[in-house]
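Exercise 7b. Backbone tokens:
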């Protein structure tokens, strides 16, 4: 994990001088003619964001998530703390720190948007002091959002009760999280959000808008099964989409627990939904290809067959973050 800390951009600074070093960093940037906040107000920081890079994270993966957070912060200026736990202490007992920042102009000349990163690398022995250090790095008057990425076990993540309890949202990607991540008894389970569900927003919207053209009772009458197919890289998306369809169809009047909701593998890049009815003349099918961005609807509820083309995509990672955090 030290490789991750070393690979991330930034300037290493003494842990006890993080705030002072951030001020000097911006002053030096401005002196070189680079974009920097003129005042603290110019930073317009909106959220505290903790990115926890779990023990299963590689250096390349860490760099990718770092850049995702940078892109997110261009829209939502943030103070970001990146946690880099050490899998092996190698004799280390102290916390190491790095700082990084960048500014971007918004839609107007006076709209300066800045992000500040504090990276913390720590061995197990320093774990007891981590919460105090994180609290010092965060803005006390801003909401906290916590993204736990590639953690190895839910019970180990549960040790970070300070973050789990204080965070307004806890973000987890169920495609890469431990199997029990979405059902583990977290301190505030109502604040847990799945990034798989978030990045499915365009798919959920397009299917929901199409089906909204039919009366709810028409959709569920005679419905026997719902089948969601997806390529192997989209297995988590298929599972989450099937669960969403079950909730929505139940709200339309489908008998809870009486219908079969199945997922099955399909070709890479493909995703699809089929409603199976007792009456073979009735149908609903949606097929999408994420590689081409093209999708097709086909439906017949007794008034003739409807065929419609549409687009399909998943949210970009930085947009999935904002969807999971704020909506």
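Sequence design result:
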């Amino acid at each position: 994990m030290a490789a991750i800390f070393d690979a991330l951009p930034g300037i290493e600074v003494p842990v006890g001088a993080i705030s002072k070093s951030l001020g000097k960093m911006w002053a030096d940037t401005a002196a070189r003619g680079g974009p920097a906040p003129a005042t603290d107000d110019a930073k317009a920081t909106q959220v505290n964001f903790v990115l926890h890079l779990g023990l299963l994270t590689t250096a390349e993966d860490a760099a990718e998530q770092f850049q995702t957070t940078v892109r997110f912060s261009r829209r939502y200026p943030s103070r970001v703390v990146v946690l880099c736990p050490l899998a092996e202490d190698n004799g280390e007992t102290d916390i190491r720190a790095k700082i990084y920042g960048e500014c971007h102009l918004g839609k107007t000349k006076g709209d300066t948007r800045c992000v500040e990163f504090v990276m913390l690398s720590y061995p197990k022995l320093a774990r007891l002091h981590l919460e105090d250090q994180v609290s010092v790095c965060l803005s006390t008057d801003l909401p906290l959002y916590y993204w736990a990425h590639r953690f190895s076990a839910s019970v180990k993540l549960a040790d970070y009760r300070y973050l789990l309890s204080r965070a307004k949202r806890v973000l987890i990607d169920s495609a890469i999280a431990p199997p029990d991540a979405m059902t583990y008894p977290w301190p505030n389970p109502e604040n847990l959000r799945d990034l798989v569900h978030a990045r499915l927003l365009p798919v959920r919207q397009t299917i929901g808008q199409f089906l909204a053209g039919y009366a709810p009772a028409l959709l569920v009458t005679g419905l026997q099964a719902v089948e969601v197919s997806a390529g192997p890289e989209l297995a988590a998306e298929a599972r989450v989409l099937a669960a969403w369809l079950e909730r929505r169809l139940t709200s339309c009047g489908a008998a809870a627990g009486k219908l079969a909701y199945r997922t099955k593998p399909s070709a890479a890049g493909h995703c699809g939904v089929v409603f199976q009815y007792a009456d073979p003349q009735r149908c609903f099918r949606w097929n999408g290809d994420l590689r081409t961005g093209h999708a097709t609807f086909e439906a017949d509820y007794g008034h003739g067959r409807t065929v419609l083309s549409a687009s399909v995509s998943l949210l970009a990672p930085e947009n999935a973050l904002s969807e999971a955090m704020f909506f």
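Instructor comment: The longest helix spans residues 59-75. The two ends are 33 Å apart (CA to CA).
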